[in-house]
Design a protein that fits this description.
By secondary structure, the chain is an alpha+beta fold. Helices cover 43% and strands 14% of the residues. The protein folds into 3 domains: 42 residues, no CATH class; 127 residues, no CATH class; 144 residues, no CATH class. The protein has a 4-stranded mixed β-sheet with strand order 6-9-10-11, sandwiched between helices. The chain has a 3-stranded antiparallel β-sheet with strand order 1-2-3, covered by helices on one side. A two-stranded antiparallel sheet has the order 4-5.
């Protein structure tokens, strides 16, 4: 006679050598000794908790936020959005990076609502009825169902394939419309909840002005950060005595009329910048040398810095060769166009204009 673990909740005893000698029985007996459960005990079936519609909506809401954040960081360069003063070494990185959920949700919601309106109009123009697709002798056949309760429909010949495509598109669009409506409601709920949430970034600005100097915030408001960034003092590159005096709207001296256009555009768009701020770059021989790029600009939204170089005589072979060497030097120091470098060029026949500079500024600095 074989007896199961005496510490188990139930025991097993049978006068059957066939069962007691079987490997299945001994495996169960060993499991009983380890877990302290009866040899032939059966666990009650697991029941899934019932979710009401509110709980389901909350889970979908948080899942949607997680998906949005994942794809947002996956399809865009994460390093571009990390708060990093690459060229201003005197400003320390803050514990919190800028948050981009709200504009992302707004953009997605606008796209969905636009697509939803388009599909609703297209469905109204689609032919009545629905499509049934079958296969007979490895040949696909299409049927047009127009009457309620009709499970067969009228056969669509091959010459009228456009009707089958229109009906298939209509069936797809009807399902898409329902999915878009659900996602639109979820996104709108997420935006409403986001706006009501007291985010960590906004706490410092809510403090009394006399209390703020006593606190070290984890995230400075844009206006305070811009003041801090522009308060950095530096030694500018000297001008030659014979150089003309060209002044910007901020009464800042620059070296060309094109640089006046760039500086005034940045100032008009409230984009913080520094003119000819010195940076140390590693040269080909491994030594570091001081360079003065035309502008260093700050994207307040992402808290990232961009160099802005303007090459104004690209029809001059010597000048364009020197510009090419400069760009190669930038690349060797991890400074790339579109990532942390903005380029504008002109020739005697193709001068720059304010609209061109404004487009570049809006693209990278807003």
């Amino acid at each position: 006679m074989v007896t199961a673990n005496k510490h188990a909740k139930g025991t097993f005893s049978r006068n059957s050598s066939q069962i007691s000698d079987s490997p299945v029985f001994f495996r169960r007996q060993l499991t009983a000794k380890i877990t302290g459960t009866p040899v032939f005990s059966r666990k009650p079936p697991r029941t899934q908790p019932k979710l009401n519609s509110r709980n389901t909506q909350k889970r979908l809401y948080f899942a949607l936020l997680a998906i949005i954040l994942y794809f947002f960081l996956a399809f865009r360069r994460i390093s571009f959005y990390l708060y990093n003063m690459q060229f201003t070494k005197t400003i320390e990185n803050q514990p919190l990076t800028p948050l981009f959920i709200e504009p992302l949700l707004q953009k997605r919601l606008a796209e969905i609502n636009t697509l939803l309106a388009t599909k609703l109009k297209e469905v109204k123009k689609a032919p009545a009825g629905s499509l049934r697709v079958t296969s007979s002798n490895r040949v696909t056949q299409y049927y047009h169902k127009t009457l309620a309760g009709d499970t067969c429909g009228r056969y669509i010949p091959a010459k009228n394939l456009r009707l089958a495509k229109a009906l298939a598109q209509k069936d797809y669009d009807l399902q898409l419309i329902e999915a878009l409506k659900k996602e639109s409601r979820l996104l709108q709920a997420a935006l409403n909840s986001y706006k009501k949430t007291r985010l960590a970034e906004g706490l410092f600005s809510l403090l009394h002005k006399n209390r703020q100097p006593l606190v070290t915030p984890v995230f400075l408001p844009d206006s305070d950060f811009a003041k801090l960034w522009q308060s950095i003092t530096y030694e500018k590159k000297p001008f030659a005595q014979e150089a003309p005096v060209l002044l910007t709207a901020r009464n800042e001296r620059v070296r060309s009329k094109s640089e006046i256009i760039i500086a005034d555009t940045l100032n008009r768009l409230n984009i913080p910048y520094r003119y000819e701020f010195p940076i140390n770059l590693k040269t080909e021989n491994g030594n570091y040398r001081l360079f003065h790029p035309d502008f260093i600009c700050l994207n307040l939204r992402t808290r990232t810095e961009f160099l802005w170089e303007h090459f104004g005589m690209m029809d001059d072979p010597e000048y364009s060769a020197a510009a090419t060497r400069k760009l190669r030097l930038y690349e060797s120091n991890s400074i790339y166009p579109g990532k942390n470098l903005i380029l504008s060029t002109e020739t005697s026949e193709l001068p720059i204009n304010t609209r061109q500079i404004e487009k570049l500024a809006m693209q990278y600095l807003k």
